[in-house]
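Bump. Still looking for Exopolygalacturonase structure tokens.
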Amino acid sequence: MAASTNNTLRVLFTLMVVCAAVCTAKRTVAKTGDLAPAPAPLGAGGATAAPEGAARASRTFDISKFGATSDGKTDSTQVVQDTWTSACGAMGDATMLIPKGDYLVGPLYFRGPCMGDITIQLDGILLGSNDLAKYTASWIQVSHVNNIVINGSGTLDGQGTAVYTKSKTDVVKAMPNTLVLFYVTNGTISGIKLLNSKFFHINIDTSKDITVKDVNITAPADVENTDGVHVGGSSNVRITNSTIGTGDDCVSIGPGSDGVMVNNITCGPGQGISVGCLGRYKDEKDVSDVTVRDCVLRNTTNGVRIKSYEDAESVLTASHLTFENIRMEEVANPIIIDQYFCPQKVCPGKRSNSSHVSIKDVTFRNISGTSSTPEAVSLLCSETQPCSGVSLIDVNVEYAGKNNKTMAVCSNAKGTAKGSLQALDCLV
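Sorry for the wait, here they are.
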């Protein structure tokens, strides 16, 4: 009887110990499970994970470890694409690393949504393939991604110099933008260099809360459609502290843009900083709340410009536009509003000397320097849609030559001038 009782006690004690151990394990999981998500599977080549128990996992996906070759000749497109897929699908924050070296790649589609915030760390050089048949509209497109940073000391080299001489027919229409943000929210492009894009260098489309800062963009001065940064259909965009020299607009702001700040930009060569072209296509949206401030333009063919097509396909308004604290250095056409824009005489509608684009509440303030042509100010507004609310405040740009006088040419531009050169006051 005593032996039976002892055996029963031993069994009960053992059960109590096991139960206590299980409960302790569950409490441990409950405490740490909220801090560190379960690690995602490693892709081919692996990834570097954050220390176990970190508050938010952060892992690095190195394209060289996935198999990318840094000789500048071997096509690494699929490897880079696979690296993105792994980084985007990883739990927690992730970094896709492009280390030092030259990597040749064709079209890349970095599509989300991703499982966490993501960084593309560009320390090396991505070289754009010159096999034009591979492209549709973009070289590198980031789409449907929230919370992305693209930074580093590396370069996106579109290698456009090898194809700029192609015939300006269907080949040109297929030329790819270098870097496109499409349906991106809360994105930053910082520190990188962009070189010789085949078309626009950066195109921000249908996105919001975007910052472009501390970038350097370079392309030949004689090649059109190599805009530095283009913004269209996007809101709350800031472009700042950058040097841009191309064959087209340093910064262009297209239809549907709202809340755009451009500041501390050094522009040249190029065609200046523009709002437009407006009205080229049907169903374009208004442009509003654009500020260009604290910029220097050197030897550009235009300064600050608003341009709309002579016979626009859309009815839209460009309003609350401010250009201030800008230095012009030998700029051909420092201040322009052009509602008769019609490049190469190819206009979208029938020529009727009218415009469907309304331009109003435009301020040019504290603009100084020199013009390389006598016409320092040119405000050419439509007779049927006059520009209204135009202000020229402390505008003092003078013709640098000696064979003519500084002058302004205005038509149908209504507003006021204050503190500006008398020769530039042509508002009614």
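The helical segments are 2-33, 77-89, 170-173.

Edit: fixed formatting.
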